[in-house]
Amino acid sequence: MSGAMLFIKEDLKISEVQVEFLAGVLNFCALAGSLTAGRISDSIGRRYTIVVASVIFLIGSLLMGFAPDFPVLISGRCVAGVGVGYALMIAPVYSAEISPTSYRGLLTSLPEICISSGILLGYIANIAFAKLPLIYGWRAMLGICAIPSLFLIAGVLFMPESPRWLVLQGRLADARSVLLKLSNSSAEAELRLQRIKAAAGIPENCDSDVVPPAMDSSKGKGVWKEMFLRPTPTVKRILVVAVGMHFLQHVTGIEAIVLYSPRIFKAAGVNHRDKLLFATMGVGVTKVAFIMVATFLLDRVGRRPLLLTSVTGMFFSLICVGFGLLAVGQSPERLPWAVALCVTGVLGFIAFFSMGMGPITWVYSSEIYPLRLRAQAASVGVAVNRLTNATMASSFISLYQALTIAGAFFLFAGMSLVAWLFFYFLCPETKGRPLEEVEMVFSHGWIARKGRKTESQLHSVHT
Question: Is the pTM higher than 0.85?
Protein backbone atom coordinates (compact mmCIF):
# COMPACT_ATOMS: atom_id res chain seq x y z
CA MET A 1 0.00 0.00 0.00
CA SER A 2 2.90 2.42 0.69
CA GLY A 3 3.84 2.47 -3.01
CA ALA A 4 0.32 2.00 -4.33
CA MET A 5 -0.87 5.14 -2.52
CA LEU A 6 1.39 7.25 -4.73
CA PHE A 7 -0.58 6.06 -7.78
CA ILE A 8 -4.02 5.82 -6.15
CA LYS A 9 -3.89 9.49 -5.16
CA GLU A 10 -3.08 10.46 -8.75
CA ASP A 11 -5.57 8.10 -10.42
CA LEU A 12 -8.60 8.55 -8.14
CA LYS A 13 -7.86 12.21 -7.29
CA ILE A 14 -8.30 11.67 -3.57
CA SER A 15 -7.34 14.12 -0.79
CA GLU A 16 -4.67 13.76 1.91
CA VAL A 17 -7.41 12.96 4.43
CA GLN A 18 -8.62 10.13 2.20
CA VAL A 19 -5.04 8.86 1.88
CA GLU A 20 -4.75 8.74 5.68
CA PHE A 21 -8.10 6.96 5.91
CA LEU A 22 -7.04 4.44 3.26
CA ALA A 23 -3.82 3.75 5.17
CA GLY A 24 -5.46 3.37 8.57
CA VAL A 25 -8.82 1.74 7.89
CA LEU A 26 -7.31 -1.73 7.46
CA ASN A 27 -6.17 -1.78 11.06
CA PHE A 28 -9.44 -0.43 12.45
CA CYS A 29 -11.13 -3.37 10.74
CA ALA A 30 -8.40 -5.70 12.00
CA LEU A 31 -9.44 -4.61 15.48
CA ALA A 32 -12.91 -6.07 14.88
CA GLY A 33 -11.44 -9.23 13.38
CA SER A 34 -9.05 -9.85 16.26
CA LEU A 35 -11.75 -9.46 18.92
CA THR A 36 -13.79 -12.27 17.35
CA ALA A 37 -10.89 -14.50 16.28
CA GLY A 38 -10.03 -15.72 19.79
CA ARG A 39 -13.48 -17.14 20.49
CA ILE A 40 -13.66 -18.58 16.96
CA SER A 41 -10.33 -20.38 17.40
CA ASP A 42 -11.48 -21.79 20.74
CA SER A 43 -14.60 -23.13 19.01
CA ILE A 44 -13.40 -24.48 15.65
CA GLY A 45 -9.68 -24.92 16.31
CA ARG A 46 -6.49 -23.13 15.33
CA ARG A 47 -6.19 -24.73 11.87
CA TYR A 48 -9.64 -23.81 10.64
CA THR A 49 -9.26 -20.28 11.96
CA ILE A 50 -6.29 -19.95 9.60
CA VAL A 51 -8.58 -21.08 6.76
CA VAL A 52 -11.14 -18.41 7.71
CA ALA A 53 -8.42 -15.75 7.69
CA SER A 54 -7.19 -16.91 4.27
CA VAL A 55 -10.64 -16.77 2.68
CA ILE A 56 -11.20 -13.27 4.05
CA PHE A 57 -7.81 -12.18 2.65
CA LEU A 58 -8.74 -13.62 -0.74
CA ILE A 59 -12.01 -11.69 -0.93
CA GLY A 60 -10.39 -8.45 0.23
CA SER A 61 -7.55 -8.70 -2.29
CA LEU A 62 -9.92 -9.31 -5.20
CA LEU A 63 -12.10 -6.35 -4.18
CA MET A 64 -9.07 -4.05 -4.08
CA GLY A 65 -7.62 -5.40 -7.31
CA PHE A 66 -10.82 -4.83 -9.28
CA ALA A 67 -11.93 -1.64 -7.47
CA PRO A 68 -13.47 0.82 -9.97
CA ASP A 69 -13.57 3.68 -7.44
CA PHE A 70 -12.57 4.78 -3.95
CA PRO A 71 -15.57 3.32 -2.03
CA VAL A 72 -14.99 -0.19 -3.44
CA LEU A 73 -11.27 0.15 -2.71
CA ILE A 74 -12.07 1.05 0.90
CA SER A 75 -14.47 -1.91 1.11
CA GLY A 76 -11.76 -4.30 -0.02
CA ARG A 77 -9.29 -2.76 2.42
CA CYS A 78 -11.80 -3.25 5.25
CA VAL A 79 -12.42 -6.91 4.36
CA ALA A 80 -8.67 -7.53 4.18
CA GLY A 81 -8.35 -5.82 7.56
CA VAL A 82 -10.65 -8.36 9.20
CA GLY A 83 -8.39 -11.08 7.79
CA VAL A 84 -5.37 -9.31 9.26
CA GLY A 85 -7.01 -9.37 12.68
CA TYR A 86 -7.63 -13.12 12.42
CA ALA A 87 -4.15 -13.89 11.11
CA LEU A 88 -2.25 -11.78 13.63
CA MET A 89 -4.06 -13.49 16.49
CA ILE A 90 -3.86 -17.08 15.30
CA ALA A 91 -0.37 -17.26 13.74
CA PRO A 92 1.72 -16.69 16.91
CA VAL A 93 -0.70 -18.65 19.11
CA TYR A 94 -0.64 -21.66 16.77
CA SER A 95 3.16 -21.47 16.42
CA ALA A 96 3.69 -21.27 20.18
CA GLU A 97 1.32 -24.16 20.87
CA ILE A 98 2.95 -26.64 18.46
CA SER A 99 6.58 -25.66 19.20
CA PRO A 100 8.95 -27.53 21.54
CA THR A 101 10.34 -25.37 24.34
CA SER A 102 13.91 -25.22 23.00
CA TYR A 103 12.81 -23.83 19.62
CA ARG A 104 9.71 -21.86 20.59
CA GLY A 105 11.34 -18.47 20.10
CA LEU A 106 12.56 -19.38 16.63
CA LEU A 107 9.30 -20.97 15.47
CA THR A 108 7.02 -18.33 16.99
CA SER A 109 9.01 -15.59 15.26
CA LEU A 110 8.44 -17.20 11.84
CA PRO A 111 5.11 -15.36 11.30
CA GLU A 112 6.95 -12.06 11.74
CA ILE A 113 9.61 -13.20 9.24
CA CYS A 114 6.85 -13.99 6.76
CA ILE A 115 5.17 -10.62 7.39
CA SER A 116 8.48 -8.87 6.74
CA SER A 117 9.05 -10.95 3.61
CA GLY A 118 5.56 -9.99 2.49
CA ILE A 119 6.37 -6.32 3.01
CA LEU A 120 9.52 -6.75 0.92
CA LEU A 121 7.56 -8.52 -1.82
CA GLY A 122 5.06 -5.65 -1.68
CA TYR A 123 7.86 -3.16 -2.30
CA ILE A 124 9.16 -5.30 -5.18
CA ALA A 125 5.63 -5.50 -6.63
CA ASN A 126 5.45 -1.68 -6.46
CA ILE A 127 8.56 -1.44 -8.62
CA ALA A 128 7.47 -4.24 -10.97
CA PHE A 129 4.01 -2.79 -11.62
CA ALA A 130 4.96 0.90 -11.54
CA LYS A 131 5.57 0.86 -15.31
CA LEU A 132 2.02 -0.29 -16.09
CA PRO A 133 -0.60 2.27 -17.15
CA LEU A 134 -1.81 4.25 -14.16
CA ILE A 135 -5.25 2.59 -13.95
CA TYR A 136 -3.73 -0.92 -13.88
CA GLY A 137 -0.54 -0.47 -11.85
CA TRP A 138 -1.88 0.05 -8.34
CA ARG A 139 -4.68 -2.46 -8.90
CA ALA A 140 -2.10 -5.11 -9.80
CA MET A 141 -0.07 -4.20 -6.69
CA LEU A 142 -3.08 -4.91 -4.45
CA GLY A 143 -4.88 -7.66 -6.37
CA ILE A 144 -1.85 -9.95 -6.58
CA CYS A 145 -2.21 -10.55 -2.83
CA ALA A 146 -4.97 -13.04 -3.65
CA ILE A 147 -2.35 -15.56 -4.80
CA PRO A 148 -0.67 -16.15 -1.38
CA SER A 149 -4.14 -16.60 0.14
CA LEU A 150 -4.72 -19.61 -2.12
CA PHE A 151 -1.38 -21.13 -1.13
CA LEU A 152 -2.19 -20.65 2.55
CA ILE A 153 -5.57 -22.39 2.20
CA ALA A 154 -3.85 -25.35 0.52
CA GLY A 155 -1.04 -25.39 3.09
CA VAL A 156 -3.45 -25.82 6.01
CA LEU A 157 -4.25 -29.32 4.70
CA PHE A 158 -0.74 -30.43 5.70
CA MET A 159 -0.69 -28.78 9.14
CA PRO A 160 -1.48 -30.57 12.44
CA GLU A 161 -4.01 -29.16 14.86
CA SER A 162 -2.68 -27.58 18.03
CA PRO A 163 -2.25 -30.35 20.64
CA ARG A 164 -3.13 -27.89 23.39
CA TRP A 165 -6.45 -27.04 21.73
CA LEU A 166 -7.13 -30.77 21.31
CA VAL A 167 -6.52 -31.34 25.03
CA LEU A 168 -8.92 -28.52 25.90
CA GLN A 169 -11.54 -30.33 23.82
CA GLY A 170 -10.84 -33.59 25.67
CA ARG A 171 -9.43 -35.20 22.50
CA LEU A 172 -6.45 -36.70 24.29
CA ALA A 173 -5.74 -39.48 21.78
CA ASP A 174 -5.60 -36.94 18.94
CA ALA A 175 -3.34 -34.68 21.01
CA ARG A 176 -0.99 -37.60 21.75
CA SER A 177 -0.88 -38.46 18.05
CA VAL A 178 0.10 -34.89 17.11
CA LEU A 179 2.73 -34.68 19.88
CA LEU A 180 4.33 -37.93 18.67
CA LYS A 181 4.88 -36.21 15.30
CA LEU A 182 6.20 -33.02 16.92
CA SER A 183 8.54 -34.64 19.47
CA ASN A 184 11.87 -36.43 19.25
CA SER A 185 10.66 -39.46 21.19
CA SER A 186 7.53 -41.02 22.61
CA ALA A 187 8.78 -40.24 26.13
CA GLU A 188 9.09 -36.55 25.27
CA ALA A 189 5.62 -36.59 23.70
CA GLU A 190 4.15 -38.18 26.82
CA LEU A 191 5.86 -35.65 29.10
CA ARG A 192 4.54 -32.75 27.01
CA LEU A 193 1.04 -34.26 27.08
CA GLN A 194 1.09 -34.62 30.88
CA ARG A 195 2.13 -30.96 31.26
CA ILE A 196 -0.65 -29.80 28.95
CA LYS A 197 -3.22 -31.93 30.79
CA ALA A 198 -2.12 -30.46 34.11
CA ALA A 199 -2.42 -26.93 32.73
CA ALA A 200 -5.91 -27.74 31.41
CA GLY A 201 -6.99 -29.17 34.78
CA ILE A 202 -7.34 -32.74 33.47
CA PRO A 203 -6.37 -35.50 35.94
CA GLU A 204 -3.11 -37.26 35.08
CA ASN A 205 -4.76 -40.68 34.89
CA CYS A 206 -7.50 -39.50 32.51
CA ASP A 207 -6.91 -40.78 28.97
CA SER A 208 -10.51 -40.87 27.75
CA ASP A 209 -11.59 -38.99 24.64
CA VAL A 210 -14.86 -38.11 26.39
CA VAL A 211 -14.74 -34.66 27.97
CA PRO A 212 -15.67 -34.84 31.67
CA PRO A 213 -18.51 -32.39 32.51
CA ALA A 214 -16.29 -30.41 34.88
CA MET A 215 -13.92 -29.64 32.02
CA ASP A 216 -16.52 -28.51 29.52
CA SER A 217 -16.13 -24.88 30.63
CA SER A 218 -12.64 -24.86 29.10
CA LYS A 219 -14.04 -24.41 25.58
CA GLY A 220 -13.66 -20.66 25.57
CA LYS A 221 -16.49 -19.79 27.97
CA GLY A 222 -15.98 -17.38 30.85
CA VAL A 223 -12.55 -16.25 29.67
CA TRP A 224 -13.40 -12.54 29.50
CA LYS A 225 -14.78 -12.61 33.05
CA GLU A 226 -11.63 -14.29 34.31
CA MET A 227 -9.44 -11.71 32.57
CA PHE A 228 -11.28 -8.49 33.36
CA LEU A 229 -13.74 -9.07 36.22
CA ARG A 230 -11.92 -11.56 38.47
CA PRO A 231 -8.27 -11.60 37.39
CA THR A 232 -5.67 -13.08 39.71
CA PRO A 233 -2.64 -10.86 40.45
CA THR A 234 -0.61 -12.99 38.03
CA VAL A 235 -3.14 -12.70 35.21
CA LYS A 236 -3.43 -8.96 35.85
CA ARG A 237 0.32 -8.53 35.50
CA ILE A 238 0.42 -10.65 32.34
CA LEU A 239 -2.36 -8.56 30.78
CA VAL A 240 -0.58 -5.29 31.56
CA VAL A 241 2.69 -6.57 30.08
CA ALA A 242 1.12 -8.04 26.92
CA VAL A 243 -1.14 -5.07 26.20
CA GLY A 244 1.70 -2.63 26.99
CA MET A 245 4.04 -4.39 24.57
CA HIS A 246 1.51 -4.23 21.73
CA PHE A 247 0.84 -0.55 22.41
CA LEU A 248 4.52 0.43 22.58
CA GLN A 249 5.38 -1.54 19.43
CA HIS A 250 3.56 1.05 17.32
CA VAL A 251 3.79 4.33 19.21
CA THR A 252 7.57 4.15 18.71
CA GLY A 253 7.07 4.86 14.99
CA ILE A 254 7.31 1.61 13.02
CA GLU A 255 4.06 2.20 11.13
CA ALA A 256 5.09 5.71 10.13
CA ILE A 257 8.36 4.43 8.67
CA VAL A 258 7.03 1.31 6.92
CA LEU A 259 3.91 2.93 5.46
CA TYR A 260 5.17 6.45 4.83
CA SER A 261 8.83 5.78 4.04
CA PRO A 262 8.49 7.32 0.54
CA ARG A 263 7.30 10.59 2.13
CA ILE A 264 10.10 10.49 4.71
CA PHE A 265 12.77 9.98 2.06
CA LYS A 266 11.16 12.71 -0.04
CA ALA A 267 11.27 15.10 2.93
CA ALA A 268 14.95 14.19 3.34
CA GLY A 269 15.69 15.23 -0.24
CA VAL A 270 15.15 12.05 -2.34
CA ASN A 271 12.75 13.35 -5.00
CA HIS A 272 12.72 11.04 -8.02
CA ARG A 273 9.88 8.48 -7.89
CA ASP A 274 12.05 5.50 -8.92
CA LYS A 275 14.66 6.42 -6.30
CA LEU A 276 11.89 6.68 -3.70
CA LEU A 277 10.64 3.18 -4.53
CA PHE A 278 14.15 1.70 -4.44
CA ALA A 279 14.94 3.45 -1.14
CA THR A 280 11.67 2.09 0.24
CA MET A 281 12.62 -1.41 -0.94
CA GLY A 282 15.79 -0.99 1.14
CA VAL A 283 13.52 -0.74 4.18
CA GLY A 284 12.01 -4.11 3.27
CA VAL A 285 15.38 -5.78 2.68
CA THR A 286 16.70 -4.50 6.01
CA LYS A 287 13.58 -5.67 7.82
CA VAL A 288 13.86 -9.22 6.48
CA ALA A 289 17.63 -9.46 7.03
CA PHE A 290 17.58 -8.39 10.67
CA ILE A 291 14.53 -10.34 11.68
CA MET A 292 16.53 -13.41 10.67
CA VAL A 293 19.10 -12.32 13.28
CA ALA A 294 16.38 -12.29 15.95
CA THR A 295 15.17 -15.72 14.86
CA PHE A 296 18.51 -17.35 15.62
CA LEU A 297 19.18 -15.41 18.83
CA LEU A 298 15.80 -15.62 20.60
CA ASP A 299 16.40 -19.10 22.03
CA ARG A 300 20.11 -18.49 22.71
CA VAL A 301 20.37 -14.95 24.09
CA GLY A 302 16.82 -14.70 25.40
CA ARG A 303 13.88 -12.35 24.95
CA ARG A 304 14.82 -9.70 27.49
CA PRO A 305 18.41 -8.83 26.35
CA LEU A 306 17.32 -8.64 22.71
CA LEU A 307 14.34 -6.48 23.60
CA LEU A 308 16.37 -3.94 25.57
CA THR A 309 19.13 -3.80 22.93
CA SER A 310 16.51 -3.34 20.23
CA VAL A 311 14.78 -0.39 21.89
CA THR A 312 18.13 1.28 22.67
CA GLY A 313 19.09 1.14 19.00
CA MET A 314 15.65 2.40 17.95
CA PHE A 315 16.02 5.42 20.25
CA PHE A 316 19.34 6.54 18.77
CA SER A 317 18.19 5.83 15.19
CA LEU A 318 15.11 8.02 15.68
CA ILE A 319 17.27 10.80 17.08
CA CYS A 320 19.41 10.61 13.90
CA VAL A 321 16.33 10.79 11.65
CA GLY A 322 14.97 13.73 13.64
CA PHE A 323 18.20 15.75 13.44
CA GLY A 324 18.64 14.92 9.75
CA LEU A 325 15.12 16.07 8.88
CA LEU A 326 15.54 19.16 11.06
CA ALA A 327 18.69 20.13 9.16
CA VAL A 328 17.05 19.53 5.78
CA GLY A 329 14.00 21.57 6.77
CA GLN A 330 16.04 24.57 7.92
CA SER A 331 18.46 24.68 4.98
CA PRO A 332 17.52 26.11 1.56
CA GLU A 333 20.25 23.98 -0.04
CA ARG A 334 20.49 20.22 -0.37
CA LEU A 335 22.58 18.72 2.43
CA PRO A 336 24.04 15.33 1.39
CA TRP A 337 25.16 14.53 4.94
CA ALA A 338 21.65 15.16 6.29
CA VAL A 339 20.12 12.96 3.57
CA ALA A 340 22.62 10.21 4.46
CA LEU A 341 21.83 10.65 8.18
CA CYS A 342 18.09 10.30 7.53
CA VAL A 343 18.45 7.22 5.33
CA THR A 344 20.91 5.63 7.77
CA GLY A 345 18.62 6.43 10.70
CA VAL A 346 15.57 4.94 8.98
CA LEU A 347 17.43 1.75 8.04
CA GLY A 348 19.00 1.59 11.51
CA PHE A 349 15.58 1.90 13.14
CA ILE A 350 14.20 -0.89 10.95
CA ALA A 351 17.22 -3.09 11.74
CA PHE A 352 16.96 -2.67 15.52
CA PHE A 353 13.17 -2.98 15.50
CA SER A 354 13.34 -6.17 13.44
CA MET A 355 15.97 -7.85 15.61
CA GLY A 356 13.99 -7.34 18.80
CA MET A 357 10.80 -5.43 19.38
CA GLY A 358 9.10 -6.54 16.15
CA PRO A 359 9.20 -10.33 16.57
CA ILE A 360 9.51 -10.46 20.37
CA THR A 361 6.21 -8.62 20.90
CA TRP A 362 4.45 -11.52 19.18
CA VAL A 363 6.62 -14.27 20.66
CA TYR A 364 6.42 -12.96 24.22
CA SER A 365 2.72 -12.11 24.23
CA SER A 366 1.77 -15.51 22.79
CA GLU A 367 3.70 -17.54 25.37
CA ILE A 368 2.92 -15.79 28.68
CA TYR A 369 -0.84 -16.43 28.91
CA PRO A 370 -2.23 -19.46 30.75
CA LEU A 371 -3.57 -22.15 28.40
CA ARG A 372 -7.23 -21.60 29.27
CA LEU A 373 -6.95 -17.88 28.40
CA ARG A 374 -4.41 -17.89 25.57
CA ALA A 375 -6.46 -17.52 22.38
CA GLN A 376 -8.95 -14.91 23.60
CA ALA A 377 -6.35 -13.03 25.64
CA ALA A 378 -4.09 -12.92 22.59
CA SER A 379 -6.98 -11.42 20.63
CA VAL A 380 -7.10 -8.54 23.16
CA GLY A 381 -3.42 -7.85 22.56
CA VAL A 382 -3.92 -7.93 18.79
CA ALA A 383 -6.88 -5.57 19.12
CA VAL A 384 -4.71 -3.06 21.01
CA ASN A 385 -1.95 -3.59 18.46
CA ARG A 386 -4.24 -2.89 15.52
CA LEU A 387 -5.94 0.08 17.20
CA THR A 388 -2.57 1.69 17.92
CA ASN A 389 -1.34 0.78 14.44
CA ALA A 390 -4.43 2.28 12.82
CA THR A 391 -4.19 5.45 14.90
CA MET A 392 -0.55 5.95 13.93
CA ALA A 393 -1.17 5.14 10.24
CA SER A 394 -4.17 7.43 9.92
CA SER A 395 -2.72 10.36 11.89
CA PHE A 396 0.96 10.51 10.90
CA ILE A 397 0.46 13.14 8.19
CA SER A 398 -1.54 15.31 10.60
CA LEU A 399 1.04 14.67 13.34
CA TYR A 400 4.01 15.85 11.32
CA GLN A 401 2.07 18.81 9.96
CA ALA A 402 1.42 19.86 13.57
CA LEU A 403 4.88 19.10 15.02
CA THR A 404 6.98 19.19 11.81
CA ILE A 405 8.27 15.87 10.48
CA ALA A 406 11.44 16.19 12.58
CA GLY A 407 9.35 16.82 15.70
CA ALA A 408 7.33 13.67 15.02
CA PHE A 409 10.49 11.57 15.10
CA PHE A 410 11.71 13.21 18.29
CA LEU A 411 8.34 12.25 19.79
CA PHE A 412 8.84 8.65 18.67
CA ALA A 413 12.31 8.70 20.27
CA GLY A 414 10.71 9.78 23.56
CA MET A 415 8.26 6.88 23.35
CA SER A 416 11.19 4.51 22.75
CA LEU A 417 12.68 5.65 26.05
CA VAL A 418 9.35 4.93 27.77
CA ALA A 419 9.33 1.49 26.13
CA TRP A 420 12.84 0.71 27.43
CA LEU A 421 11.82 1.51 31.01
CA PHE A 422 8.63 -0.56 30.65
CA PHE A 423 10.49 -3.63 29.39
CA TYR A 424 13.31 -3.28 31.92
CA PHE A 425 11.05 -3.19 34.97
CA LEU A 426 8.06 -5.32 33.93
CA CYS A 427 9.22 -8.01 31.49
CA PRO A 428 11.03 -11.02 33.01
CA GLU A 429 12.87 -13.62 30.91
CA THR A 430 10.80 -16.54 29.57
CA LYS A 431 13.47 -18.37 27.54
CA GLY A 432 13.77 -22.10 28.18
CA ARG A 433 10.48 -22.58 30.04
CA PRO A 434 7.67 -24.86 28.86
CA LEU A 435 4.50 -22.92 28.01
CA GLU A 436 2.74 -24.47 30.98
CA GLU A 437 5.34 -23.00 33.38
CA VAL A 438 5.74 -19.48 31.96
CA GLU A 439 2.89 -18.25 34.14
CA MET A 440 5.11 -18.95 37.17
CA VAL A 441 7.55 -16.23 36.03
CA PHE A 442 4.87 -13.58 36.61
CA SER A 443 3.88 -14.75 40.09
CA HIS A 444 6.67 -12.94 42.00
CA GLY A 445 5.46 -9.36 41.90
CA TRP A 446 5.54 -6.50 39.43
CA ILE A 447 9.25 -5.68 39.20
CA ALA A 448 10.93 -8.13 36.83
CA ARG A 449 14.48 -7.90 38.19
CA LYS A 450 13.50 -8.49 41.82
CA GLY A 451 11.99 -11.84 40.96
CA ARG A 452 14.82 -13.01 38.72
CA LYS A 453 16.80 -14.94 41.37
CA THR A 454 13.69 -16.65 42.70
CA GLU A 455 12.65 -17.66 39.20
CA SER A 456 16.08 -19.13 38.50
CA GLN A 457 15.98 -21.14 41.71
CA LEU A 458 12.46 -22.39 40.99
CA HIS A 459 13.46 -23.46 37.51
CA SER A 460 16.52 -25.27 38.87
CA VAL A 461 14.45 -27.13 41.48
CA HIS A 462 11.86 -28.09 38.86
CA THR A 463 14.54 -29.37 36.48
Answer: no
